[in-house]
Amino acid sequence: MKQYLKLDEWSIIEESFDPALHEISESIFSIGNGYMGQRANFEERYSGPSLQGSYMAGVYYPDKTRVGWWKNGYPEYFAKVLNSTNWIGIDVLINGTPLDLAQCEVKDFVRQLNMKEGYLSRRFVAVMEGGKEVQIEAVRFVSMKRQEIGAIRYAVTPLNFSGSIRFVPYLDGDVQNKDSNYDEKFWLEVEKAAAADLSYLTLKTKKLDFHVTSVMAFDVFKNGQKLEFVPSLSEREKFVSAEAVFDIEQGETLTLYKYVANVTSRNHGLGQLVDAGKKALLEAHAAGFDTLLREQAEAWAEKWKGSDIIIEGDASAQQGIRFNIFQLNQTYTGEDDRLNIGPKGFTGEKYGGSTYWDTEAYCVPFYLSTADSTIARNLLIYRYKHLEKAKENARKLGFTKGALYPMVTMNGEECHNEWEITFEEIHRNGAIAYAIYNYVNYTGDKSYLSQYGLEVLAEISRFWEERVNFSNLKGKYVILGVTGPNEYENNVNNNWYTNRIAVWTLEYTLEVLDYLKANENARYLELVDKLKLTDEETAKWRHIIDNMYYPVDEERGVFLQQDGFLDKEIVPVKDLPPENLPLNQNWSWDRILRSCYIKQADVLQGLYFLGDRYDLETKKRNFDFYEPLTVHESSLSPCLHAIIACELGYQEKAYEMYLRTARLDLDNYNNDTEDGCHTTSMAGTWMSVIQGFAGLRVRNDELVLKPFIPSHWKSFSFNVMFRGATLNVNVTEESIIVTNETDVPAAIRIYDNSYTVGAHGEIRAQRATVTV
Ligand code: BGC
Fold first, then answer.
1. Which of 111, 132, 133, 515 sits at 20 to 30 Å (Cα–Cα) from 548?
2. Domain boundaries, the chain
3. What's the 634 CA to ligand 1 centre distance in angstroms?
4. pLDDT, tens digit (0-9, with 9 covering 90-100), for 193-223
5. Mean pLDDT in the chain?
6. Which residue intervals of 386-520 are DSSP H helices?
7. Once rounded to an integer, what is the mean pLDDT over residues 546-565?
8. β-strands 746-750, 702-705: how paired?
9. What is d(CA 350, CA 493) in angstroms, rounded to the nearest whole number?
10. How far apart are CA 76 and CA 156, in angstroms?
């Protein structure tokens, strides 16, 4: 862990250049707009260690599975979002010498991610051969308003010499994924043209036939005056460039504006890509850099209006939470229901940019509260569209009915290939069902159930029906051979969380069926017919609900993570010599599996999801038992513990957990930020403030708040959208003020009192202390 970034409420700032930290910064300073994303690579050549990364959402490659020992049922491929054409590149030659920060002295370096307005900037002085100093100022963004557009302003000022500057803006498609299983390159060239006004390059993937066209144009200005020139052009395989050389006097500034449109066959017909790219580019070019940058600031102002959290009295916490919100907003914007949220967003290649249960369990709440409900709805529809594939997946594993959603996917097909996860981490099905409940409970949009929700719920229920078996010994249903959320144990029997979420899914499915039967009968009959749902099936679901086995320890009053958990030697993490941690880097896998140590919330995940069904005493006993055994080696872990700790009034614990998540990437807490940021767990950080510190829940159609405030925060405030209203919640040590910023009244409860906040109305309440 190294803290090298300057504290600032709205920006991430790096004030000197350290090549050893460069790949970490490349992740942290990434930019994206939901449609594409770009690591903070330099525009100019850089020969030091770097992970070049430009990613187009949804453009992926089925990379042939690599595995030591093949098991029936393994997927043939691992899908990965592809590193695509490097569109930011600009070679810069100063008096014929390439500018390369690995080859020269770098002074006054400042890299800044302006989160308020959504752009990345960099300023430095490079000391070249013979002490020639040149100042560079670069600004870059990918447009939120015009999603296919990226723009760069790159200004060069020789400080102590006169000479020549050669600019070579290019598009380079000869790129490779670092995580390619067989060191293969995935792109083929389709067509290209370098021309004075516009150059373009079209590539296609070797499989699946995704096409991506990048079109670029550039202008050069000297001291603010546009220059006329005829560039020299060059082409080679998967590469086009245009270049021009300019004489420049000491103190003058030469500014290059590079505009690029990246269009894909996901959104345009194959024959139309070049035209579509040119059209988008010409429009952006005509608007000009300053207009595009202004549009960007406006688009981000809108985003912040919905999602900002303001923390007074703690600049570090403020920067941390804004960074998380910024990354979430630039990863998923929700217009395209074919897209989802990879655990690393667009900031790196680990996890392949694929979809995990992280989305339903951690990200859905963020988008539900901070954006129009269609955005979270699209995340649900994504899974609805994959229902047939989830059914196929279940058949492939030998089930005669039902749907098993994949653990890792891009298009609905499973692409993970570790048996203990692919075949056993089936609790993911529960999270997908739970997200439907969460969405309907939050938004009140019950139409989702008849349109899409019931089909998914019924097929997941059918899976659970077949996945349980009746144990004659126990006289109960059991679920054998699973991996719970705690991946530090595999192939366990009766993981409490899995059994519980399975039964909850059955209960909820039956509840939804009853609701539709009573309220949308014609559609209900249509769906029963479509699903061929029988009375025997629903009767069996009821039987499972009533007769499921749950491991418990009566003496301690806790749910047992799985059968036999208490056979383990139970030693709290705090008693382990610190050099053992993190366990996944210091212990053999065998030792981890046999130990009592828990990677992430497991029983507690269930108590969080089903929080309204368990009293505080039960939550307390389980938290007190499991938290001391938890090593939080998944970034998804601390946030959930922070939320439950808040509920229990464990303020110090809650804050300790919050700190582990809030600045995870900014402070490189897990020593792995160079692989990319932990984007999905950032939603968990947001949850730990909103659901943890503010205690926000939706119960019985009311928005419930039970806030507490960390001791050194003066106040915190945030906006949440709830059923058409936008509410601003402000919490101080003394009071809670909820202001309705819209015309739509909202039902809220603060601690135990219910209110209606009328149009543009305000409610004030005293802060109270929660004790268990
Ligand atoms: C966690 C999983 C998670 C995955 C991707 C793993 O370390 O254990 O729960 O889905 O990371 O974030």
1. 515
2. 31-305
3. 6
4. 999 999 999 999 999 999 999 999 999 999 9
5. 97
6. 387-396, 419-422, 428-443, 447-448, 454-467, 496-519
7. 98
8. parallel
9. 30
10. 49
Reference 487, options 634, 607, 672, 609; nearest CA is 634
Q: Which atom of ligand 1 is nearest to the CA of 680?
A: 12
Closest CA to 381 of 443, 439, 461, 329: 439
Sequence-distant (6+) residues with CB within 8 A of 714 are 312, 313, 732, 733
Our answer on whether the CB atom of 600 is closer than 6 Å to any ligand 1 atom is yes
Closest-lying ligand 1 atom to the alpha carbon of residue 485: 9
Neighbours of 68 (CB within 10 A): 4
Atom of ligand 1 nearest to the CA of 358: 10
- What is the 386 CA–ligand 1 centroid distance (Å)? 21
End-to-end CA distance of the chain: 35
Scan for tokens 């940019």, then name that residue: 353
DSSP β-bridge partners for residue 750 = 705, 753
Query: pLDDT for 369-417, tens place per residue?
Result: 999 999 999 999 999 999 999 999 999 999 999 999 999 999 999 999 8
> How many whole angstroms separate alpha carbon 764 and alpha carbon 379?
35
* CA-based nearest residue to 437, from 372, 386, 361: 361
Is 652 an active-site residue? no
Beta-carbon neighbour count of residue 160 at 10 Å?
12
Q: Is the CB of 634 under 6 A from ligand 1?
A: yes
